[in-house]
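All the exercises in this workshop are built on plain-text protein records. Sequence and backbone structure share a record, each on its own labelled line. The question running through the whole workshop is how a given chain folds. The record below serves as our worked example for the rest of this section.
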Amino acid sequence: MRIEVIAQNKLHVQMESDDLKKLDLDYERLNYDEDSTRKVFWEIMALARERTGFDAANTKLLVEAFPDRRGGFSLYVTKISEDEYIAELYVASHTKKNERADRRAIYAFDDFENLLAVCGVYAAQFAPLKLASRLAVDRGTYYLMLSVPCGAVTQKSGEAMLRAFYAFLGECGERVAEPNKTTPWLEEHAAVVIDARALELLSEKFVLN
């Protein structure tokens, strides 16, 4: 089990298949309404506090779980304020499984560290998507432009992974409306600093080293 603080209010817990067996956890059966899930969750939070100092007690939390291709899953725990929307446990595979995810998307980041966190998670868990990615910068905001190459995501498992990645992106950055219209605007008015493989290049240069 790998536990790391990726932002001041955000914790990432990587659960491997061996961890799930020891804790008797199953991604498909995660349910925060059940005592068994809550018990394991707070055991993990106690371990996180011991290792990293991240204290999740006495605060409202957004807890999200995303499966990975190795049989485990990633758990993201975010401390949220009183006026933010609360979803105690969001499991990506439970969202409209038959709906086709968008083939083009743009996410804006005001914090470069959040962008790097996305690139690191993509390299570790979502690389099989083989997304085309570019990076533009305009007045201190970073715009990650994504598209799905033809034939890259065809199976239901790929659709679920794509939706899971979009959900994670939405926690770290802000989704930009109407990407088909925004992309030409960025190409004309912003500085396109990485024209291809932005996710991979940022991960290799800043995250993996």
User: Anything to note?
Assistant: The longest strand covers residues 60-67.
